[in-house]
Amino acid sequence: MRQIYLLLIILVLIIGNQKFVVAQGAVTQASPSVDFKALREDMMRTQIERRGIKDKKVLDAMRKVERHKFVPLIYQRFAYDDAPLPIGEEQTISQPYIVGLMTELLQLKGNEKVLEIGTGSGYQAAILAELAKEVYTIEILPELANRAEKLLQDLGYKNIKVKCGDGNFGWKEAAPFDGIIVTCASGDVPQALIAQLADGGRMVIPIGTDYQELRLLVKTKNKIEQTNIIPVRFVPMIKKKLKP
Ligand code: SAH
Which residue of 79, 89, 148, 187 is most buried, as measured by CB atoms within 10 A? Predict the structure, then answer.
């Protein structure tokens, strides 16, 4: 009899424990909530501040803009990782540190008109919109241009204009620009962009094909001073003609 009691107790314990394990599993699976704010703060400390981005306004903008809203749902939990991510159409959203570095190089004070070539997800445009007066951004792929335009509208940005077109030609009607940021790699600096840069304006652009240098151009009285900043890797600038 005692043995049967013992057996029963062991059985109850085993079954009870299994139920507990199942319950734990269910809890883990049923709570996909991710603390994006904490991930963003972690990104700021370990990637952005630690690598030397100091401009307070740039730091504030990157703390504010919710990067996970700019990536496809399946990648949201990786949005604050130290890497670029796919955004569809074989394109990528840039690594957070590169966004911070390129933005800081523009030295925005708040009153500028800025042009971005390569809207992609719209994330860089949102960061710029926090720091400048007006942002003009050009994307060559219609799906991405439309998606970014809608998202930026939904997020309430009123100082961003999105255009679908070839950024090699800039945005003549809105020129000159105090800052130009190119987020796809070009073999050389497009002449139209140099022409559309204001006196005293700054341009950041990855130059090269497979291997690229991030280059800063500063225009002073029609003279261009160029400085190479760091080696980078961007998707190439598309030069094909748009379908009619
Ligand atoms: N700044 C983006 C990342 C851009 S990836 C972000 O924050 O998400 C580079 C983008 O440049 C891609 O979306 C690509 O379609 C676009 N692009 C490539 N060639 C272009 C061109 N000639 N004119 C405008 N956009 C171009």
Answer: 148
Binding pocket residue ranges, ligand 1, CB within 6 Å:
91-94, 117-118, 120-121, 123-124, 138-141, 144, 166-168, 183-184, 235, 237-238
Residue that wins the pLDDT comparison between 133 and 23: 133
pTM of the model: 0.87
Q: How far is the CA of 206 from the centre of ligand 1 (A)?
A: 12
Q: Is 186 in the active site? A: no
Instruction: Inform me whether the pLDDT recorded for 160 exceeds 60.
Output: yes
Percent of the chain at pLDDT exceeding 70: 85
Identify the band that residue 239 occupies on the pLDDT scale cut at 50, 70 and 90. Answer: confident
Q: Provide the domain limits for residue 39.
A: 33-232
| DSSP calls for 213-230 | EEEEEEEETTEEEEEEEE
CA 56, CA 171: separation in Å to the nearest integer? 29
| C-alpha 22 – ligand 1 centre gap (Å) | 46
C-alpha–C-alpha distance, residues 195 and 242, integer Å: 23
pLDDT above 90 (res 199): yes
